[in-house]
């Protein structure tokens, strides 16, 4: 046999769970740190790859810097 809960009991339970939900953080700090770590590794690899590509193309001085800067801007615009 299934017992029905009174509406007052369910209303009190739902208001308690609403209060508990508002006190919980919306994000996980560990997940945010992990995402920043992955982005930092991605930027490091991108910097190395664009430097190697610029050197292989023989771009030095201002032209090499502009080449590197363009690739940095591409990655910044790609990642929101």
UniProtKB/TrEMBL annotation:
Its main location: endoplasmic reticulum. The chain crosses the membrane at residues 52-74. GO terms for biological process: autophagosome assembly; protein folding in endoplasmic reticulum. Keywords: Endoplasmic reticulum, Membrane, Transmembrane, Transmembrane helix. It is a multi-pass membrane protein. Residues 7-16 have a biased composition (Low complexity). The keyword Repressor does not apply. GO terms for cellular component: EMC complex. It is found in: Endoplasmic reticulum membrane. Residues 1-25 are annotated as: Disordered. InterPro entries: Emc6, EMC6-like. Belongs to the EMC6 family. This is ER membrane protein complex subunit 6. It comes from Panagrolaimus davidi. The lineage of its organism: Eukaryota, Metazoa, Ecdysozoa, Nematoda, Chromadorea.
């Amino acid at each position: 046999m299934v017992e029905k809960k009174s509406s007052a009991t369910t209303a009190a339970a739902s208001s308690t769970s609403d209060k508990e939900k508002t006190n919980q953080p919306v994000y996980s700090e560990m997940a945010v740190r992990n995402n920043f770590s992955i982005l930092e590794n991605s930027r490091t690899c991108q910097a190395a790859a664009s430097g190697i590509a610029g050197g292989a193309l023989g771009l030095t001085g201002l032209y090499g810097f502009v080449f590197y800067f363009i690739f940095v801007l591409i990655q910044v615009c790609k990642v929101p």
